[in-house]
Every structure is written in structure tokens, then in C-alpha cells.
User: Fold this.
Amino acid sequence: MDDRERLEAEVSYYDPTRQPASPSRRHFLKTAGASGLAVAAAPALSSVSYAGSPDDPDTQTDAPPAEGKQRITLVVNGQRQQLDVAPNVILLDALRHGLQLTGTKKGCDHGQCGACTILVNGTSINSCLSLAVTHDGDEITTVEGLEKDGQQHPLQQAFLKHDAYQCGYCTAGQMMSALAVLQDDDIGTRDADVREAMSGNICRCGAYKNIVAAIQSARSAVKGGKA
Amino acid sequence: MRTLTDLSRPPAGPETTDRHTAPAEPRQAPTHDSATLHVTGRARYLDDQPAPVDALHVAVGLSPTARGRLTQLNLDAVRRAPGVVDVITVVDIPGKTDVGPVFPGDPLLADAEVRYVGQPLFAVAATDFKAARRAVALAEVEIDAQPAQLDAVAAAEAEEWVRPPHVQQSGNWQQALAGAAHVLEAEQFVGGQEHFYLEGQACLALPNEDDGVIVHTSSQHPSEVQKLIAEVLGVAFHAVTVEVRRMGGGFGGKETQAAPWACLAALLARRTGRAVRMRLPRGDDMRATGKRHPFHNRYRLGFDAQGVLTGGDITVIGDCGHSPDLSEAIVDRAMFHADNAYSLGDARVTGIPARTHNPSNTAFRGFGGPQGMMIVERAMDDIARHLGEDPLTIRKRNLYRPGRDVTHYGQHVEQTALLHEIVSRLETDSDYWARRDAIRTYNASSPVLKKGLALTPVKFGISFTAKHLNQAGALLHIYTDGSVMINHGGTEMGQGLHTKVGQVVARELGLDNSAVRISATRTDKVPNTSPTAASSGADLNGMAARNAAMQVRERLFDFAAEHYQFDREAIRLENGDLVVGHGENEHRIAWGELIQAAYLGRVSLSATGFYATPLIHYDRTTGQGRPFYYYAHGAAVSEVIVDTLSGEYRVTRVDILHDVGDSLNPAIDTGQVEGGFIQGMGWLTSEELKWDATGRLLSDGPATYKIPTIGDTPPDFCVSLLEGHPNSQASLYRSKAVGEPPFMLAISVWSALRDALSSLADYRVRPALDTPATPERVLFAAQDLRRVPETKTPAETPR
Assistant:
């Protein structure tokens, strides 16, 4: 892509009367809608600037992977997604930049704050520490996958009810860790057990008391199979 | 418009609106304005925002040296690197090169002089972030290194200041010391604190069609970002629009220090004509931005046989880093709080803003106040040990009271009775004395594990000490479907400000909260705003929003009186209706109907609101005045258990009673108290900033910098808001500010640790315990105490 092409892309971006459907636009603009994901409220012109970056994933499926990239399939929130990724792309960036799933946050980028926690085959991991190519075929759940059929997950309801956030930046990671904690029978049910198990998720605002309350209040609904 | 909307249809609300999908369960107070967005992951932070696909990404070249002259900056290889579109140094800045917020001293990019490790030298814009970072590594940088000043005390002694020292004085402090029955003195080091806002510094700059930019930034002070960008670009302010929707945490770290990055992004956007995204990697963020000021404090205080202060001398030295930034006001605030809740008697308080070769330390929740309070809280404990009294007894005797109710800077403390009530209620509710006895008994029979208990009060002054910042604006629109849009100068960083301001408007117009929406903070809606800081967000912006709502309400009343022939004096707005009369004579006009009638009647349905805090003044030449509109109060009791052979400890129980006047939103306020306490506890216990001898930050990530986790939350943590005590000043519905004051409740944890340590020497010794009181420091303190001969009590300072 040379600068002239980029310029044209920019012109089309700024023209609100143009329909976002031409093949050349699709090449540049990777809308959440086009990838078929259930991302709510993605505007028609949603395009993240990462899409043109050589290091970031391609979601095109009609051509062989570009040089230096590998094709992987991820089952993300129940949807099969094909991605061409460079071997050094981390899973977090593949989700955020490749699939526009920006609900999962990058806090420290060093696996120490927990903001990027997601579930991989039911296990919680720091997605900033994991290479996307190692997850070919894996089932991934992010915060966007918690809602089912327009119904909030019991954990989402519990976090709402207990005001278990302030700035909200850690919330997705907290909920994903909490889901793994509640589903792990080896972790006890006391507040102290929850605090110990959730210690990998920093909330800088210090909403911890409400987070414990939210997790404990969601326990029966999550364990009861409603999740 | 030609036709008006049909009001009988259900209200249209896009998916992203929270209030329509809020849980059906009735709540005492409205929930956070972004609640649903937060739990669904749909709340957009800076880095989640869409941008044009050709947006560039920025990486910044940072100085590896604390002090020196930049002798070579060869960026040829950087310019040639793949993906690089533009590279800038200081010579490429068309306008002002200094982005100091109050005083000059903060070069946007280094010129010849390098003054701290992490100082930006150049910036690279490339097609993707990795390309930009790889290119930065190709720079050839040569710096002729010079000895760096990294010791704030040495800097203070050498008169290396970022601003001149300041003195506040009441009465004859020398005479007070000379005549005192007892005199003690001590020094302490109070460590700094990394903000670690979970969303790092980030912005997105979009060039507009003429000579300006639209900048989305994660900043507490959009108006200042606008000003600095305009100055850097050399354009008028009206060419620059700055927008802040929300921050993933701010805590003061985005009051001034979000601006330089926005200036760089804006400049690169103008130069390239392309959108520019910028986000500091966490390590760079921690190295390149300022932190809470470390302070070196000293006291020399006299007191009577009862332990009541008669006067003395306190010095606070702030490590300001390389430039003034906000340090003058921060050291001032440390001085304003060197008394905390106690009358110092005849005292002199001196503040010294020392210059070191560190990043410029900056605002952080409490703004110097916490560091200042630490010295007098140390003195309270020390006096108690010296006289063999319980520290709570000494604290209570020293609380401001009638006759001893004027601060060392001349402000009258109005709510002295409230201060005493909070302390005595918490003393009772937390069962302080029974627990004190139990702990004494426990410690007597436990040679290694020692428990400690402490109750500390907080009295925190509310207002910006820079008087002109105590103003706010708001912009209110009512649309012809009856929906209300309020915009104000404050920014949302998780503190629930937007929720509170929305509540204010809904209350003034008699509407449900869901009828009022707040849009992103934007400089083209409300101009010349103050930072969202000093706990003032709701106080100031809530009042401005109220003012706007009241103006429109009066217009609607005028209109209704004429249009419906109502008695103007009997009209009110409640439950979504305009109401006049009572009982059988009651008439109701539905809100939407009223608004449409008013529109057709050509009534303006938009207003700007304004507020300026009354009464406040401070004269820096005399160090006297009334800098604060009012004080917010609180108190906390903390209990700890310490392993005196390892230094490890746990906070086992915390009880808090906090004064927010008539709370605007108890759920939000309680969250602020809890969160403030946790953050304060981290500051005083585990959060240790470490630099090497060359001025390089070693604790540059959460693996080495220990932020409290959920496991550090006290298992028994009881927070109550004081009820039935409205603000004595005419603040917003008699509420009180809540952002900063609870932070200092955590001093009780530090004091409890000293209490536990004191038990090693029969509560007769004053242990030195600098902060953060890490297990290492606690262990060293314990070892020192074990060396104290049992028969010898420490001598007083010779006079």
C-alpha cells in the first residue's frame, strides 16, 4: 500500500455519504460488522488504525497468508475466526487489533496487572503474555462473550449491582478471572479464598470490597449452570 | 425544525446508553454513568477508539542519562527505518517549545540540556507502533554526562529550588519552644508514589481541514492540553479542540502530564496530515512521567505536660524533580496540612521545593497534603510515647477546639465539634479501648507476633489554592423531545463525577436521571475549564450545571405563567411534570409537552452555567488567609499484626467514619472512601520507588512496584459515611468533596505499625519508620528497637 492509496482511503473515510461496501474499502477498513462478530454498537465506519500494520493480523480469508504470517483459527466467543498472524503477535493484540474486540484491555503489557485476562479453553490467562500462533484451534472467551442472547451474564449483573468498578479499565479482566475462579472447584468459597485467587488482577481505584461482594453474590448463579 | 417529534413513542435510546438497560432493581442512588458499558466491555478508552486506517503511531526517544549536555543526536538511521513517516526534534516545533503548566521549565523535547532519565529527546511517527519503536532504537545519542543531583535534602541545602521556599507563621514559635515543658524533634522520609493509572498516557490527534487539530486524550485538564497544543503549533486556541470521554484512572497523573504527549501527537498530525495515535508503553510511562513527591520532613515541637502542642517549627522538603510543574502548590498544600487536625500553637512551617534530576513530580491524590500530615502524625505518636500516654489520648487533646481553632496560616476551623464527634464516635464504634487492652495483653505474651492499633483523623482543605482555578462552566441543552444534555468542564476518571452532575440537573428540573445525559468533556462546549482535581469536580461543575438548569427553569416558569396562566410563584417541577397548585387545584403539564410548547413559544432551551467559589483568599507574601472554602473530615482505626522477626505484617481490621456532608451519592462516596484508603495504604506500605545511583528508575513495572491487590484488602473493612452533618458552607446541596480526603485515612495503618513496633520497647520508644513501611523497613525498625536497653528511656532534645 503506497501513500496515494492511503490518501484515497482517508478521503473515503471522511466522506460520510459513501457506502462502506466497495471492495477497495474493505481492504482497508476492517469493520467489526464485516468480521461477523457480535460486537454491539460498532458503527459503520468503525476502523481501527492498526489494520494496515504489517505486524498486525489479517482477517482476510480469500488469499493465502502473507509472507511471514501463519493462518490460525480461533473460536472466539463461539464464533470461528480465521486470522493470519506473524509469529510474534501476542494474543491480546490479535483480539484487539485483528478482531476489534477492544473490551479486553492492555494495562501493563507484562502479565502483571491482569487487565488482559481472558479464558482459553476455560482456563484464565493473561493474553498479553501469550503468542497468538500457539492458540490455533483454541476456544477463547472474552468479555464480549459473556452476554448470551442479549442477557447479561450473572457476573455482569453482579458487578453492576455492587458497583464493582470505578474507572472500569480493569473490569473485563476482573470478570474473566472471577469466572474462572467461580468455576474452579479447587478454589474455596470463603472471601479469603476469593481474595487469594483474584490477587492477579489489580484495581488501582481500589474497588476491591465491591469486587469480592460481586463475585460472591454471583456464585450460586454461575455454579448453578446459568453461565 | 418543521415538525416536532411524537412524544407518545417510547424514548429512543441507542444501545450504548446505560440507563435504559440498568438493572430493574431500584437503587438508593443512580449507578455509575458508564456501568453497563463497563461490564460489557463497550466503554471506549483512548486506545479502543476507531481511527482512520492510515493513522500513524508514535514512539518517543528518551534520555538514558539523568543530567548532561546533548552533544549528538543523529537520527539518520531512524528516518530511514521501515515504516517511518516523520521524525521530530525540538527544532521542528513551530511555536513554544516549553510546556510548563504554571512556570516554564518543561521542554517538550530536549534542547541541549538533559535533566532526567526518561526525558523525551525526539519523537517518531511510523505506520505501526512496532516500526516506531524499532526506529527509536536506531538513534545515535551522545550525552556529555554531568553529576546528577538526586538527593532532595542536599539540593535544599544547596538552595537548588524549582521555586523559592515559602513560610507560614503564627505567633512567636521560638518563644513557644523556649517556654515549653517538653520539646521533641524528629525527621522522616515519606516516599513518593507511582500513579499506575491502569490506562496509560494515551491520545489520538486528528488534523482538521484548516490549521488545527482535534485531539482525544486521557487527561484531567482538557483546557490546558488545548492551550499547550495551540502554543506548540503556534495557532490560536480556537483551532484546537480537545475531547475527553473517560480515563482509565487519573489520580493526578493526568493533570499536567498528559499534555506533552498530546502536543507531540498534535504536531505530528499537523506535519503529516494524518491521524496520529500515541500510547506510552508502561515502562516508558513509569520512567518518563512524574510521581507523587517524596518528602523529607522535620519537626521540632514543644508541648505541655498533657502533651498539648504549644508551638514549634516544621520543615517540609519536597523532591520536585527537574522543573516546577505544580510543585509550588503541592509543597504549599503539604504546609497547609502540616497541622492535620491539630492546633500547632505558635508555629512556623517552612516548605522547600527542591530541584533534583528526576522526572518532574506532580499531582497525586492529596497533592502534598498527605505528605504534610505525616509529620504531625509522627509527632502525635512520639509525644504519646514520651509521656507514656496512649496516642489516641494525645491526638484528642490536640484536636482543634474553640479557643485553639485558627491554623498556622490564619484560617478559622469552623467545624471543631464535628471533628471531636467523628473521633469519639469511631472510638466507641470500633471498640478502641477494649481492643487496646486486648492488644496489650496479647503483645505481653507474644514474643514475635505483635499487634498494633491506631486511630488517626483527617482534616483536609477543599479548594484549589490557586484561587482562579475555583471556577467552572456548564452547558445545558433541552431538546424538543424533552431529553436533556449537560456538558461541563469536569472529566470522568472513575470517580462518578458525571453521575453526580447528571443527578444535579435531574433534581433541578424534576426529572428522572435517565432523562439527562452527559457527553464527553470538550473544549468547544465549555471553555477555559479548570483541571478535574483538588477533589473539586462535583463541587465546582455540579454548581455550574445547577446554575444552568436553574436559568432554564426560570425561563420555563416565566413561559408557563404566561402561556398556561399559572401563578408564577406556585409553579414547580417534579416527577417529570410542571406542577402548579395542590390537591384538587393541582394542574400538571408533562415535561415533554411543556418543552415543545416552550419551543413553539420561542423560549431559549439552552443555557451556560457558571460558578466561582466564594470567600476564599490567600496572600503568599504573608502566608496568611482563607485558602479553603471548607474542610472535609474523617477518621480511621487500623489494626495490624506484625511478625517482628521477618517484618511481614497484615492489616487485619479497619474502621472508617468519613464526613461527606449531605452525600450526593452514598454508593459513589463510599467507593471513593474505600478506594482512597486502599491507595493510601499502598503509598505508605508496599509501593516503593527504587532508583539506581544514576537516577534510573528500577521499579518500572508492577512486578517490582507493589500495588495493593485484592488480597491486601483488610478482611474486616467497615466504612461508614457520617450522617446528619451537612456542610456548614453553602456547597452543592451541602455536600462535601470526597476524592482526596479519604486517602489520608491510611496514615492509621502506618501509625498502627509504629504502635506494634513500640510494644517491643514497652511503648516508651519512638520508632523511626520511614515510608513506604515495607516489611524490610519494619524489620530494621524492629531490630533497632530490640537493641534499646530496657532501663533507658530516650532523652528529650536538649534545649
About this structure: Chain B touches chain A through 77 residues (CB under 8 Å). The domain at 54-147+195-288 of chain B is CATH 3.90.1170.50 (Aldehyde Oxidoreductase; domain 3).
